[in-house]
Structures are given as structure tokens and as C-alpha cells.
Amino acid sequence: MPEPIAVVGAALLDDLSRPRLLLAARRTEPSHLAGGWELPGGKVDPGETELEALHRELREELGVDVVVGEEVTGPRPDGRWVLSERYAIRVWTAQVSGGQVSLLEDHDELRWLAAGELTSVPWLPADLPIVEAVGRLLGP
Ligand SMILES: Nc1nc2c([nH]c(=O)n2[C@H]2C[C@H](O)[C@@H](COP(=O)(O)OP(=O)(O)OP(=O)(O)O)O2)c(=O)[nH]1
């Protein structure tokens, strides 16, 4: 099996120390993923670390700087979550430290969801177990 392409994503929380809300973003492309909700992020570019990629993607997509919290580890031995045959994602919690969350690229809607609202949007199927894990971090 070839190594999967590295993707990174942020479980952007309203407050890292007392999280109640998770940011969900609706994809605009490609067509087979459009309309599905995901965690902001994207592919790691050559020569970039995963965390550099995370900060870059959040600036590009949402126009924000963030403080990164803990990794939300997935079932793979390397902590990643399988997205598809080709892609696997590493996910970290994060909180906005600068700028306003805005729709700049790749998404056409954003929603801050409380624990009881996490199933109110159609997440991309691969994100469901990730969102479930993040949901366990959210308080009332
Ligand atoms: N960013 C992100 N991608 C996800 C999630 N769930 C999921 O299945 N994917 C898939 C969609 C894509 O096939 C792949 C990530 O690619 P991307 O399109 O977000 O990456 P990118 O911003 O670097 O895109 P590009 O520059 O190559 O167009 O992973 C998720 O929660 N976040």
C-alpha cells in the first residue's frame, strides 16, 4: 500500500480550555465533495511541516491565525484518520488568536456547532468518526 497523501485539519474550537463549539465548513469543490461539511485544512505542501500546513491553510481559507492545542488522534498507528484510499488526515484542536473567521476560499458556509448540534450538518462521511471524537471534548 502506498503511503497516503498527507492532509491536515483543524478542529477549531471557541475556547481551547473550555470548548463548547466546533467550527464546521461547507466545501464548494470538487463536485463530488461540494456541499459536504468538513474541518478546515488541506494538503501538506512539499517542504512544509504538517503544522506549517495547518497554519497556512487556516490563513488561506478563513483568514485567521490560530493557537494549536492537542492532536485528536485517529485509529492509524501514526495517529492519522483515513479519508479515502489516497488521503489520510491529522487533526489538531485550535483556537483563533488573530483575525476574523471569514469565507475566503474552498467553503461557502461556516457554522459553530455545539455538542448537541454536531449531527445537524451532512459531514463528509470520512469526517464522522473525527467529529464524534471532537464531540467528546465539548462541554455543555
Ligand atoms: N481539508 C479537509 N479535507 C478533507 C476532509 N475530509 C475529507 O474527506 N477531506 C478530503 C477532501 C480532499 O480530497 C482531501 C483534502 O484536500 P483539500 O482539497 O482540502 O486540500 P487543498 O486545500 O490543499 O487543495 P488543493 O490546493 O489541492 O486544491 O481530503 C476534512 O475534514 N478536511
Please identify the top-level CATH class: Alpha Beta
CATH-assigned homologous superfamily: Nucleoside Triphosphate Pyrophosphohydrolase
Shape: globular
In whole angstroms, the N-to-C terminal distance is: 42 Å
How is this structure best described in words?
The protein has 140 residues and is an alpha+beta fold. It has one domain: Alpha-Beta Complex (Nucleoside Triphosphate Pyrophosphohydrolase). Helix content is 15%, strand content 36%. It is built from two helices and eight strands, in the order E-E-E-E-H-E-E-E-E-H. The protein has helices at residues 50-62, 128-135, and strands at residues 5-12, 21-27, 37-38, 41-43, 65-72, 81-82, 87-98, 107-114. The strands form two sheets. Strands 1, 4, 5, 6 and 7 form a five-stranded mixed β-sheet that branches. The protein has a three-stranded antiparallel β-sheet with strand order 3-2-8, with no helix packed on it. The mean pLDDT is 97. 8-OXO-2'-deoxyguanosine-5'-triphosphate is lined by residues 7, 9, 33, 38-39, 41-43, 83, 87, 89, 106, 124, 126-127. Belongs to the Nudix hydrolase family. Pfam families: NUDIX (PF00293). Keywords: DNA damage, DNA repair, DNA replication, Hydrolase, Magnesium, Metal-binding, Mutator protein.
